[in-house]
Design brief:
CATH topology of the largest domain: ABC transporter transmembrane region fold
Number of strands: 12
CATH architecture of the largest domain: Up-down Bundle
CATH class of the largest domain: Mainly Alpha
Helix content: 55-70%
CATH superfamily of the largest domain: ABC transporter type 1, transmembrane domain
Bound molecules: adenosine-5'-triphosphate
Strand content: 5-15%
Membrane topology: Multi-pass membrane protein
Domain ABC transmembrane type-1: 23-281
Shape: elongated
Subcellular location: Cell membrane
GO molecular function: ABC-type transporter activity; ATP binding; ATP hydrolysis activity; ATPase-coupled lipid transmembrane transporter activity
Number of domains: 2
Distance between the termini: 60 Å
Protein name: ABC transporter ATP-binding protein, AmfA
Amino acid sequence: MTEGLPRRGVRFLRARWRVVARLAAWSVLETGQTFLTGYAPARALDEGFLAGRTGAGLAWLGVAGLGVLVGAFGTVRVYTAVAELVEPLRDGLVARVVARGVRQGDSAALSGLTQQAEIARDTFAGLVLVSRSFVFTAVGALAGLFSLAPPLLLVVGVPLLAGVALFGLTLRPLARRQEAFLVADEALAERFGAVCPGLRDITAAGAEEPVAAGTELRIDAEQRAACSLARWGVLRVVSLTIGGELPIVLLLATAPWLLGHGVTPGALVGALAYTTQSLLPALRNLVHGVGTSGSRLAVVLRRLLREPEPQPPEPQPAEPFTEAPAPALSLASVTFAYGPGAAPVVERLDLVLSPGAHLAVVGPSGIGKSTLTALVAGLLEPDRGRIHVCGHPVPGRRAAARRVLIPQQAYVHTGTLAENLGMLRPDPVPEAELLAAAGAVGLLPLLEALGGPGARVDPAALSAGERQLVALTRAYLSYAPLALLDEATCHLDPRAEERAERAFAERPGGTLVVVAHRISSARRAEKVLAMDGRSTAYGTHEELMRRSALYRDLVGGWTPVRSQPALALGDPDRVDAVAGTGLAGDGRHVVAHRPVGQVQAAGDLRDGGPLGGED
Ligand SMILES: Nc1ncnc2c1ncn2[C@@H]1O[C@H](COP(=O)(O)OP(=O)(O)OP(=O)(O)O)[C@@H](O)[C@H]1O
């Protein structure tokens, strides 16, 4: 923010001087009403009822009643003028925050900011009403007191001014404390918002103590801010007592003296009417309104008018030649743990994939494969390190537009098949393209069985494998060059899986990362990333078979051993099936994870089944 709030406020009001003038003009009616609040009853008493002229007394009371009507008319006009003043403020703020939100692409922050703009509007309207009302009421009351008897002005005016002065002095420190309290309150709310949904994970990660300590710090900070605010709040009450209540006490205490020095009983009653009916309520509204809403408005405006933090320069992908195309995916020393006290699931991982690459990610169950895809997809943020998709930082809008994640649980919604398949496309997908995609991925038989692209789909009537084919074809049709298949083919048979994977691998300009479900997935990929907690191995299938014990173990887990009689028969294919995995050479034992019958049902000796012995 380059200019302070008071200056901006003055500039804002100066630009709308006509509305301000209209507001002041209508407020004068309120001053007149206040004047009559004390003056008319005083005259009614002195010149009417006490003088035995009931008619005159009633006439003066009638004047007071007329004053109320005129004042009410003025108040209605005042509201219209206030609206003319505050609506442009709101419009300006909303335009500003929407422009900023659109520039930054942060829709969550945007809705919060527009809500704050509404708060600013309401608070500003309240402030204008109470401060204006106090000024015009005070002028009317003080003028009335002076007209009735100048000594009354002394008795009421001096404490009133002292109270207002004291209130004025407390304004700045109070605003600062109010702001400190709001900030501490928000920090605590934010902390609870983050901690409460994650209580289970915090317990699971054994991070209770650091989380509790961090929360306690914020609670202490809020308590300190609240105590400090309360101490200053006492001064506010003192100023109200001096300015609003002390004059009443003084009027009563000095009544004999006043009556003995030319002040009439009517004037005394009038003065009491001014203090109790006009000055005290107006001062109370001012103290509460400006004291609380004023500082809140200052906080909200400061936030809304703050210029966005300059974005750090985008880190360049680690490429030797700047003119070379950015890698489809790059991870630089990426570390991630599910909580501050938890062991990292991914640790200092480096990876660079060129456009068109095909990577299989393998590893034991629970090692972090899905976590890795979630990091690349921007669903999780690394604790350290940087991720780029097509040269764009993750998380970020541009990176998100360039990747598509297909999770294990495929999502199909009620509607036509064409609607389901075109969901990730900004433009309508031509039918020929849709059919070609369905053919490539292997959805065509289902598409035909359902009755074509226009047929309605009942997600519940589809099998898990059919739902996966729909989700895969939808991703295939998207413009995102990077496809992340996180066990997205686990319900397909090996042949269908191969077809779908090949389709993605052959997408023009497409890069494919597959969390491998079968050994055949890893063999098809150009490169394999074998995850093993803190250490990872990266290379081709053959390279990893040579140098990664973990990978050999995984392949062993995937590869079924033939029953003894089959080996005894000396079937060269069957021996090859085992030896081909490279297991025989290093003397390791191959562990069969499933009975032979199931393997054969799967139709591929080397595709024993899912990693980690899930089924
Ligand atoms: N939301 C979470 N909060 C805390 N820990 C989690 C969370 N999600 C996963 N984990 C843990 O992180 C580790 C890695 O999980 P992840 O799902 O990435 O493994 P995976 O290799 O994909 O497993 P699988 O092959 O069984 O799908 C596991 O120990 C898991 O329990």
